[in-house]
Amino acid sequence: MSDDQTDFDVSDMPAATVENAALAEAYNRGLKLEKAGDLVAAAGSYREALALDPFDPGGFIRCLP
Fold first, then answer.
1. Which of 15, 19, 27, 58 has the maximal Cβ count within 10 Å?
2. Which pTM was predicted?
3. 4: three-class secondary structure by DSSP
4. Domain map (residue ranges) of the chain
5. How many of the other CB atoms lie within 10 Å of CB of 53?
6. What is the pLDDT of residue 56?
7. What is the DSSP string of 30-48?
């Protein structure tokens, strides 16, 4: 994913998580909030994504300080 791309492409996700639209929505919201500079809200969205799929590396890596 390039720096100028905001939305996460669900086709890049493992098949088990593609069905979970809420996961993609939480992750995409986090990306948009992060890009807008609202890091606290972005972290909350990434935590929401992690709650939906604790093994998703994208949400975990984005939550790291």
1. 27
2. 0.63
3. coil
4. 16-63
5. 20
6. 74
7. HHHHHHHT-HHHHHHHHHH
Give, in degrees to the nearest 5, the angle at Cα 17 between 12 and 22: 105
State the Cα–Cα distance between residues 57 and 47, nearest whole angstrom. Answer: 12
φ, ψ for residue 36 (rounded to 5)? -80, -10
Tokens describing residue 4 = 């100028």
DSSP state of 13: S
Sequence-separated contacts (24+) of 33-39 with Cβ below 8 Å: 34/62, 35/6
Query: Residue 26: what are its φ and ψ, rounded to 5°?
Result: -65, -45
